[in-house]
């Protein structure tokens, strides 16, 4: 049975990843193009402003000036020497990335579903699949997003990427730990659903709020960056994950329900 669930999770995860890729390509890529255009315009402005005084006093050394000024920032150097990966290739690779993401998440989800099946949650496999997908989306996506929302490519200091990654992973850990505490609380509280559900929600929210207050914030959005573009990028980023988890949870639940209705072999 575990093998069947694993194969189902991998295939449906791949399909949901491709669906999410279509959403990201259609809705998210235009926002990235806008952010990159702003980054290029800002870089061109900085290079132009830096070149003017140098050319006035050292015009005969202009051949070496570009390389000296390029050490002022890694991103500036990238624009001088051209893109290492074209935007067309990046857009095509988006579907590969979301497909591989779906494969990995689908496999992990299937193994977790096999462990939860019959132990916690709804008795129906279809309802358990939907509940597990919704819980995973809240714990692994929404919780870290609320503390460390996604930023466009033009936003963020490359030198802090490791720190930001660790902080994001820490919030994912908080989300998973809070989920485990909430499930344990729901199973231990007596008095029916009117007592069980508020206790479970409180057990989930309290650790998330405490961690959000204790962990440092990250604010690297440059002054003057369009707030509307930043908001649209973050919403589409969260929307891509919502499309993936909604598609995957629905497909996984539907196949579970279909398997349960199938007649037993003679």
From TrEMBL:
This protein's record includes keyword Metal-binding: no
Short name of one Pfam family: CbtA
Bias (Basic and acidic residues) ranges: 44-69, 76-86
Span list, region Disordered: 43-87
Keywords: Membrane, Transmembrane, Transmembrane helix
InterPro entries: CbtA_put
Transmembrane portions of the chain: 92-114, 126-146, 166-185, 197-218, 238-256
Name under which the protein is recorded: Putative cobalt transporter CbtA
Organism: Actinomadura citrea
Lineage: Bacteria, Bacillati, Actinomycetota, Actinomycetes, Streptosporangiales
């Amino acid at each position: 049975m575990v093998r069947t669930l694993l194969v189902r999770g991998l295939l449906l995860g791949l399909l949901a990843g491709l669906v999410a890729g279509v959403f990201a390509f259609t809705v998210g890529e235009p926002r990235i193009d806008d952010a990159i255009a702003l980054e290029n315009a800002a870089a061109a402005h900085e290079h132009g402003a830096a070149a003017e005084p140098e050319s006035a006093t050292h015009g005969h050394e202009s051949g070496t000036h570009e390389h000296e000024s390029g050490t002022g920032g890694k991103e500036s150097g990238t624009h001088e020497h051209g893109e290492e990966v074209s935007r067309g290739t990046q857009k095509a690779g988006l579907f590969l990335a979301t497909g591989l993401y779906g494969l990995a998440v689908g496999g992990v989800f299937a193994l977790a579903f096999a462990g939860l099946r019959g132990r916690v949650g709804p008795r129906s496999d279809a309802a358990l699949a939907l509940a597990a997908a919704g819980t995973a989306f809240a714990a692994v996506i929404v919780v870290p997003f609320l503390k460390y929302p996604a930023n466009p490519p033009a936003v963020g200091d490359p030198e802090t990427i490791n720190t930001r990654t660790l902080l994001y992973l820490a919030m994912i850990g908080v989300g998973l730990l809070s989920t485990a505490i909430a499930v344990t609380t729901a199973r231990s509280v007596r008095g029916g659903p009117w007592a069980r559900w508020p206790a479970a929600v409180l057990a989930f929210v309290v650790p998330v709020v405490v961690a959000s207050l204790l962990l440092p914030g990250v604010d690297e959005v440059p002054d003057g960056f369009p707030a509307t573009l930043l908001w649209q990028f973050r919403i589409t980023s969260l929307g891509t994950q919502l499309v993936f988890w909604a598609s995957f949870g629905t497909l996984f639940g539907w196949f579970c329900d279909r398997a349960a209705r199938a007649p037993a072999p003679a």
